[in-house]
Amino acid sequence: MRVISYNTNGIRAAIKKGFIEWLATDPADIICIQETKATKGDVDVTAIEALGYETYWFSAQKKGYSGVAVFTRIKPDHVEYGSQIAQSDSEGRVIRVDFADITLVNAYFPSGTSGDERQTYKYKWLDEFHGYLNELRKSRPKLIITGDYNIAHMAIDIHDPKGNKNSSGFLPEEREWMSTFLNDGYVDSFRTLHPDTTGAYSWWSQRFPSVRLENKGWRIDYICITANLKEALTNARIFPDVKHSDHCPIYAELKL
Which of 6, 53, 132, 148 is flagged as catalytic? Predict the structure, then answer.
């Protein structure tokens, strides 16, 4: 099972920048998109379907905001839209897809960069999502959790840890949540296979064009798995040269 997670920062904008052509190179069996900023009806999906992908979308109620989607060549047994938590679902943040005994959860975690109110909501969402996953694990113990987590976990995951110590996405409380989450039976696929790799980032600020050229980035996108899938993990990569967004795709492969 080859899985990609990719925050496209607007799927329609990404398509204009060559997203479909990249998809035609067969990068993965399952493509998990965050921040679609669109509904399925806003996109001509025939080109995506022509490549063998079925598409499942869960969009925000607010037009042009948030939203997640899964494009898959492996036919799912079940698709569930949302986590049944009201505000998260109104913002189109979670979609669940089951493949036999594997459950994939694709999530777009909130950002706290717009102010204190959203940062407070981010902490609430993190706790609610952790609870949702732990409840889901009772009946579906093999989980893959893809998404833009909007958290750089360790100093190795950010280009300037000292300068960003007070920045949303690298605050002590956020990093502590990530540690607690991983200590609760979840595995960061990239760090499992690349524990000491530096300069491995998945997002670069768009404020200054030189930031991406100089690789001044953050690793805030993850494919995490439950510990019972760790032995199945065979590959994990980041693709910084794929440029349809301010994020880049990340990849994990499991031999099931």
Answer: 148
